């Protein structure tokens, strides 16, 4: 019965937020914040006593499918030409800032959280490295913010969750060796990580290229009904996910690489995919934020410790901002822009899914799960509330005008 109540509440939430979505989106109440807090409120008040097994295969499949769809959609917007030509800010934050965020996060975890092996600390940092632009939508939708800065944030958040998958898999394998060492030696876990990444790459390239080629040829032969074109493209994303699962590769790596491969073959059709992912993907991701507030965030609150909160705060501030600042040394970017880019690195969908994935394998210890969920909850609140007002303030600053020039 509680399941029916949860579904009814979610349906009402979609209708209610949808009716007022335009004015709400421009305030301190973006959709992910509203959906997560609604779920948390329903759980805290006892109105809906909904629990979910964190190792539930249904929940994991839903979460994995949602992230895979988003990864494919984000990657499909980029051709190789666009990747090479992306602005220097985005390149540096991805190629230098992301590894530094993992390094700084690892050092902070080792210094604060007792009992963690270095690979577990690194796994926590990798899980918290990717960002989610949905939590700061006003940041990228405010047209007064220079296009160069908005494009850097969009590109970083669109690609860093895919780039975070290999380190998450590697450190999960090393942590698995520590936690489950009796089930295999170190070489076994390293081979496992390599297989996940390598087979994921192969599945993504094969399915993305073949699917893109088939769609292009069908369109040229006029076999493809335009009404089914988007579904055919999204079918490629699903195929990459399933192909990776079938051969023992990682579905996230496969979906991300499939999106890049698909874009290389039929770049002119990726706009439709992006539009579909933006709409349907939003439905799935908001549903996951609701489940997070209803059933996952209470886990973090139940296991709360002050040191966990301290790490969460450091992850959102010192770790993230420090990594961004170091990555942009030499670019001439002014301090207000550094702070703006550093602050708007919200944690969301990717972190939730990564925790579900590695916890489902029995690899993640409870402190790591609690810290990751607490960080997402804190990020949902802070970034959701500050996105619109901070974007408005920054947009009219001298730094925005100076650093916004291409």
From TrEMBL:
<dbReference type="InterPro" id="IPR038770">
    <property type="entry name" value="Na+/solute_symporter_sf"/>
</dbReference>
<keyword id="KW-1003">Cell membrane</keyword>
<feature type="domain" description="Cation/H+ exchanger transmembrane">
    <location>
        <begin position="12"/>
        <end position="391"/>
    </location>
</feature>
<feature type="transmembrane region" description="Helical">
    <location>
        <begin position="371"/>
        <end position="395"/>
    </location>
</feature>
<feature type="transmembrane region" description="Helical">
    <location>
        <begin position="308"/>
        <end position="331"/>
    </location>
</feature>
<feature type="transmembrane region" description="Helical">
    <location>
        <begin position="96"/>
        <end position="118"/>
    </location>
</feature>
<feature type="transmembrane region" description="Helical">
    <location>
        <begin position="31"/>
        <end position="51"/>
    </location>
</feature>
<dbReference type="GO" id="GO:0015297">
    <property type="term" value="F:antiporter activity"/>
</dbReference>
<keyword id="KW-0406">Ion transport</keyword>
<keyword id="KW-0050">Antiport</keyword>
<keyword id="KW-0813">Transport</keyword>
<protein>
    <submittedName>
        <fullName>Sodium/proton antiporter (CPA1 family)</fullName>
    </submittedName>
</protein>
<keyword id="KW-0472">Membrane</keyword>
<feature type="transmembrane region" description="Helical">
    <location>
        <begin position="197"/>
        <end position="216"/>
    </location>
</feature>
<keyword id="KW-1133">Transmembrane helix</keyword>
<feature type="transmembrane region" description="Helical">
    <location>
        <begin position="283"/>
        <end position="302"/>
    </location>
</feature>
<dbReference type="GO" id="GO:1902600">
    <property type="term" value="P:proton transmembrane transport"/>
</dbReference>
<dbReference type="Pfam" id="PF00999">
    <property type="entry name" value="Na_H_Exchanger"/>
</dbReference>
<keyword id="KW-0812">Transmembrane</keyword>
<feature type="transmembrane region" description="Helical">
    <location>
        <begin position="338"/>
        <end position="359"/>
    </location>
</feature>
<dbReference type="InterPro" id="IPR006153">
    <property type="entry name" value="Cation/H_exchanger_TM"/>
</dbReference>
<dbReference type="GO" id="GO:0005886">
    <property type="term" value="C:plasma membrane"/>
</dbReference>
């Amino acid at each position: 019965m509680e399941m029916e109540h949860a579904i009814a509440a979610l349906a009402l939430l979609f209708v209610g937020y949808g009716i007022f979505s335009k004015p709400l989106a421009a305030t301190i109440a973006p959709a992910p914040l509203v959906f997560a807090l609604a779920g948390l409120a329903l759980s805290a008040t006892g109105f809906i006593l909904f629990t979910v097994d964190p190792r539930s295969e249904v929940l994991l499949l839903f979460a994995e499918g949602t992230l895979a769809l988003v990864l494919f959609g984000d990657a499909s917007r980029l051709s190789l030409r666009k990747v090479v030509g992306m602005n220097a800010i985005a390149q540096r934050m991805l190629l230098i800032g992301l590894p530094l965020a993992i390094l700084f996060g690892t050092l902070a975890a080792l210094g604060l959280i007792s009992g963690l092996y270095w690979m577990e600390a690194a796994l926590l940092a990798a899980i918290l490295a990717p960002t989610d632009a949905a939590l700061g939508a006003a940041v990228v939708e405010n047209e007064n913010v220079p296009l160069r800065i908005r494009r850097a944030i969009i590109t970083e958040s669109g690609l860093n969750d895919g780039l975070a998958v290999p380190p998450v898999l590697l450190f999960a394998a090393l942590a698995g060796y520590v936690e489950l060492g009796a089930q295999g030696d170190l070489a076994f876990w390293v081979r496992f990580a390599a297989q996940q990444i390598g087979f994921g790459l192969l599945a993504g390239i094969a399915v993305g290229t073949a699917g893109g080629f088939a769609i292009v040829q069908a369109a040229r032969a006029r076999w493809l009904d335009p009404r089914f074109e988007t579904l055919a493209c999204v079918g490629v994303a699903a195929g990459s996910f399933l192909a990776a699962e079938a051969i023992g590769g990682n579905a996230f790596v496969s979906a991300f690489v499939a999106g890049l491969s698909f874009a290389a073959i039929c770049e002119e059709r990726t706009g439709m995919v992006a539009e579909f992912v933006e709409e349907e993907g939003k439905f799935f991701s908001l549903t996951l934020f609701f489940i997070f507030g209803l059933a996952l965030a209470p886990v973090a609150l139940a296991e709360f410790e002050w040191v966990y909160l301290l790490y969460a705060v450091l992850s959102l501030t010192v770790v993230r901002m420090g990594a961004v600042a170091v990555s942009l040394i030499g670019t001439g970017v002014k301090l207000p822009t550094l702070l703006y880019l550093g602050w708007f690195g919200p944690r969301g969908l990717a972190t939730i899914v990564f925790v579900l994935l590695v916890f489902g394998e029995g690899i993640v210890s409870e402190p790591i799960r609690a810290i990751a969920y607490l960080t997402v909850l804190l990020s949902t609140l802070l970034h959701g509330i500050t996105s619109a007002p901070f974007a408005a303030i920054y947009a009219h600053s001298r730094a925005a005008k100076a650093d916004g020039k291409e």
